[in-house]
Amino acid sequence: MHMTVSQAAELLEQLTPSAKNDAVEVVFCPPFTDLHVALEKTKGTGIGVGAQNMHFAEKGAYTGEIAPGMLQELGVTHVILGHSERRAYFNETDEDINAKIKKAFDHKLTPIVCCGESLTQREQGVTMDFVRQQIKVALLGIPGKRVREMVIAYEPIWAIGTGKVATAEQAQEVCAGIRATIRALYDDAVADAVRIQYGGSVKGENAAELFAKPDIDGALVGGASLKEDFINIIQAAE
To answer: What is the percent of the chain where pLDDT is above 90?
Structure first.
């Protein structure tokens, strides 16, 4: 929850020229109120614009929520679903995420589906059990051809906004486990095609090491996307 419309416009004017990159897929995901200006500032650049959340209903008595069709008509290309903050603060469940994924595809939106464990779960050695469950429930009834088109973002909750970062080895281990789960649910082709990202205090200084791992296809960037260090992350991906 950062940036008013005028602040977002200023930031986008700073970042967009350097963020354009034919070798790297870049998507900005600002708050709902900034989506229009983000679309305006990125027009013709090849940079995507995504929302940070959406409801699974087409319309209805859901005051304060945003429907998938609203995002589609606006011109948004992506939507983040199941971020840990949505789960923790607004009680979103894996079943909710599953319903949202289906609606996102119905409206030609690419879902960026988040998963990840708490510090307690990591310390108790149940990280992969927990993440596998999140993935399995979220993908229930989703055909393989759709999974190939989506993004899965592993973001350990204990590394979000804390300055703590999973080591490249820890991140690779879980991302590899996610890909293995997809392989077991679908097949090799789907597992190879799905994009798996790491999120959690990604910075220019650690991005290259993370991206060098075989099962980390990119990053879901938080705080570093609010400053010029975001360009360093894009360059590391390239």
So the answer is: 92
